[in-house]
Amino acid sequence: MATVEAQTEAPSFQIEKLYVKDLSLELPNAPEIFMQAENPQLEIQVRNEGQKFADALYEVVVTVTVTAKVGEKTLFLAEAAQAGIFSLRNIPEADIGPFLGIACPTILYPYVREVISDLVTRGGFPPVLLAPVSFEALYAQRNQGQPDVPLASAS
Question: Residue 110: is its pLDDT beyond 90?
Answer without folding.
Answer: yes
